[in-house]
Structures are given as structure tokens and as C-alpha cells.
């Protein structure tokens, strides 16, 4: 199974301008030309067209950071899965903990978005979120049951788990913790007949990325702050190459 390395730029100052996407691509593309895994750049909506243009002749996929829970209609400010598809976007992050915490998204909403993403051929990166280990054990089954409701096992879905205390704090989980959580999720998915890749996200950096992939058994990484530096993100994307 190919690994997944997903950059989540968020609403960062480093990508405020369209030119910043051009500059990023110029530095990043030569560094990942030989990477055979799945590399994804998830940019803000306003820069998606430029990102698609920059990466069109490469194996790097362009993703969005969110999509609407409705297919179409009078929903001011929303961006539909169909719009993303027509813009050349291939991947979409759904249910990120920041969407849950700041915008009140719950499992039902994430499931609606997931259904639409699959309908329009997007690869959804579905985020599971938890604040503590105990909370994770209590909510894992509920999150998976709700988020993956009516989703076929042959769909192309990626699962990412994020301890909220590790996002943007510089305090990543230890490799043993990541190994434990990854196994729990994979066991639950297997019980439901799924074989989706499971990614870890939360203060991933070049110096801990390899541990999460090689020793903890994660199928990939969802990267925030470190992905804003093309050299650091390229180093993460090649962490398990040797």
C-alpha cells in the first residue's frame, strides 16, 4: 500500500498570495520527483486553481481543506464537491478537528460531506478527533459508525486521526502511542469490513516522521505547520524511502 503524505496549509500567512503557491511549487517539485507514494497539497480555496496549474504535470495531487455538506443551492460562501471536482481537485479533508471545534461540525455533517465527495470522485481524508486517550476509546466506534455510514468498503477513503492537544502545539504523540492508536483504528475498520489507510496527524516534523511510518505503522501523515516549508515537507515525504 502506498503511503500518504498530506500537506494542510490551512489559513496560514505563508500562503496568503497566489505567488506563494508558485514559489512553493518551484521549490517542492524537484525534491519529490522520485517519490512513489501519494503526495497531496491541500491549499486554501482561493489558491486551488493556481495549485492545480502548478502541479498538473506532476504526480502531486491537489486537495481542498473542506467542502460543503450540500450538493448545490443558496448557501452563501460554501464550496461544493462538484465545484472542487471541476476545478481539478482530487482530494478533500473532511471533519478536521478545527472544523469540529470552531464551526460545530459533527459526525453527521462529516458523513454528508463524505457522501458528496465520493459521488464526485474526490478522495476524502476523513479525520477522527479526540482530546484524551480515554475519550478516544469511548468515541472511536461512534465516530467510525457515524462518519462511515452507508460507505462501501470498495470506496477510496483515507482515515486520519488527530489528538487535538498535538495540533499546532509542537507536542506530537510518541511512536508507541501512535502505534497503539493506529492498531485500534485498523482493528475497528477491519471489523466493519474496511481496509482504509490510517494516517497520523499532530505536530509532525522531519525528525519524527520516520518513526510514525516505519516503527508505529501509520499509513501516512497529515502535516500542518511543517508542510508550509517545501524543504521540510519534502523531507517528510521521503522519510521512509531508505
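^ Assign residues to that structure.
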Amino acid at each position: 500500500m502506498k503511503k500518504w503524505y498530506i500537506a494542510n496549509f490551512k489559513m496560514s500567512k505563508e500562503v496568503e498570495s497566489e505567488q506563494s503557491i508558485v514559489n512553493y511549487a518551484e521549490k517542492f517539485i524537484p525534491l519529490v520527483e522520485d517519490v512513489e507514494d501519494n503526495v497531496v497539497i491541500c491549499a486554501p480555496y482561493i489558491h486551488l486553481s493556481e495549485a492545480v496549474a502548478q502541479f498538473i504535470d506532476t504526480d502531486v495531487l491537489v486537495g481542498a481543506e473542506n467542502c460543503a455538506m450540500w450538493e448545490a443551492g443558496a448557501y452563501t460562501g460554501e464550496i461544493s464537491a462538484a465545484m472542487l471536482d471541476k476545478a481539478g481537485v482530487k482530494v478533500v479533508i473532511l471533519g478536521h478537528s478545527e472544523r469540529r471545534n470552531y464551526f460545530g461540525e459533527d459526525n453527521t455533517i462529516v458523513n454528508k460531506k463524505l457522501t458528496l465527495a465520493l459521488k464526485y470522485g474526490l478522495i476524502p481524508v476523513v479525520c477522527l478527533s479526540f482530546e484524551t486517550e480515554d475519550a478516544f476509546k469511548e468515541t472511536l466506534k461512534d465516530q467510525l459508525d457515524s462518519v462511515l455510514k452507508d460507505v462501501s468498503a470498495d470506496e477510496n477513503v483515507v482515515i486520519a486521526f488527530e489528538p487535538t492537544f498535538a495540533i499546532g502545539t509542537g507536542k506530537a504523540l510518541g511512536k508507541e502511542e501512535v502505534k497503539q492508536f493506529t492498531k485500534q483504528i485498523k482493528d475497528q475498520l477491519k471489523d466493519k469490513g474496511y481496509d482504509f489507510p490510517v494516517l497520523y496527524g499532530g505536530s509532525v516534523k522531519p525528525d519524527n516522521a520516520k518513526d510514525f511510518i516505519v516503527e508505529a505503522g501509520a499509513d501516512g501523515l497529515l502535516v500542518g505547520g511543517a508542510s508550509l516549508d517545501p524543504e521540510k515537507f519534502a523531507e517528510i515525504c521521503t522519510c521512509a524511502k531508505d
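The radius of gyration is 17 Å.
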